[in-house]
Amino acid sequence: MNKMDLNMTQSAPDEDKPRGFFGVVRRIAIFAAPLVAIVGGGVLLAVMIVTGPKAKEKGEPPHAPAVQFAVAHARPTTVSINVQGEARPRVEATLAAQVAGRIVWASPKFAEGGSFTEGEVMARIDAADYQLAVVRARAQVAQAQEGLTREEAEGELARQDWQALGRGDPPPLAVREPQLAQARAQLASAEAALRSAELDLNRA
């Protein structure tokens, strides 16, 4: 190696290093940048803490709330209330006639919402048919009474005839006791029919 080669070798590293004032500033900036960032962040945080809003303490005691009161006095008053609803009767009754027929008269109270007292006539039914039924029943009673009277007379005559023969106590058939019992039953039936016809007439 000659002297020229040695000088070239020594001068090569010096070319890689920055020269002058700008090279020094560059190296200082590279090393100082992280430190500046840390210090700047700390300063910014301190400024935010110092300049942030602070809670103010109230030195005055709390004020009591205002209260109004009045003395209540009892006095009559009228309250008006507008309502809607359905009116229903306290007592509802289903009416049915015990006898059939044409209604010829109805009470003026016999309407929706009307009321009646016990024993009051509410309506009348045509009673012509029931009057005729009473007449027929009375005629049947009269016939049954006549038949009973005839049987009693015939039975008494038969008893006298049997006693005249002197044969002791007569048998029931000889003195017409069965016919007498039948006549009494017919009279009772006719009287019952008459009472039923009169009851239907009253119900009309």
What's this, in brief?
It contains 4 helices and 2 strands. The protein has helices at 3-16, 20-51, 128-165, 177-203, and strands at 103-106, 123-125. The chain has a two-stranded antiparallel sheet with strand order 1-2.
Notable traits:
204 residues, 4 helices, 2 strands, rod-shaped, disordered N terminus
Describe this structure in words.
With 204 residues, the protein is mainly alpha-helical. It has a domain of 79 residues. Helices cover 54% and strands 3% of the residues. The chain contains four helices and two strands; from the N terminus they run ααββαα. It has a two-stranded antiparallel ribbon with strand order 1-2. α3 runs antiparallel to α4. It is rod-shaped and about 190 Å long. The termini are far apart. The N terminus is likely disordered.
